[in-house]
Q: What sequence folds into this?
């Protein structure tokens, strides 16, 4: 049994580094959701345990801070659909995906603080902060205050010395 599968997330906020860097078309629609689908089992395990999920990811390569085309807000509806796909055959409550417009702003902390078991919060693009790619310790500390435990489910980015993956 691996440490992850044997861990009970009941009552804990799991800060999960996912790789939601998915391609979008000109209408900002997802054209390949395989990376998102790959994270669903991890998310569902934590939710099934009675935990709360806070997702963080990069998206594209924004040059000068926030840009709408690189916002993770475009993924919220699809993520909610993926997490609720097999509800018809279960007694589970639908999963609502909340969104924080800034990964380290007060709104993110307030939303995370009010979360209840079974809820999911998607944080805005980590790369809107240059500190992410620089592996900045203070940035990583700000992110860490959002959760109780950290899970790396972004194996495609695990080799990077970024704040959310290595620090």
A:
């Amino acid at each position: 049994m691996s440490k992850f599968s044997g861990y009970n997330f009941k009552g804990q906020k799991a800060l999960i580094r996912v790789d939601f860097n998915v391609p979008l078309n000109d209408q900002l629609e997802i054209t390949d959701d395989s990376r998102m689908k790959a994270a669903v089992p991890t998310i569902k395990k934590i939710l099934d345990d009675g935990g709360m999920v806070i997702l963080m990811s990069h998206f594209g390569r924004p040059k000068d801070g926030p840009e709408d085309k690189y916002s993770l807000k475009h993924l919220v509806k699809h993520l909610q659909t993926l997490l609720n796909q097999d509800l018809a055959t279960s007694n589970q409550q639908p999963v609502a995906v909340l969104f924080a417009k800034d990964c380290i702003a007060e709104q993110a902390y307030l939303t995370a603080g009010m979360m209840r078991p079974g809820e999911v919060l998607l944080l805005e693009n980590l790369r809107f902060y240059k500190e992410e790619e620089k592996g900045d310790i203070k940035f990583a500390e700000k992110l860490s205050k959002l959760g109780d435990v950290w899970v790396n489910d972004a194996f495609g980015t695990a080799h990077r010395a970024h704040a959310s993956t290595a620090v």
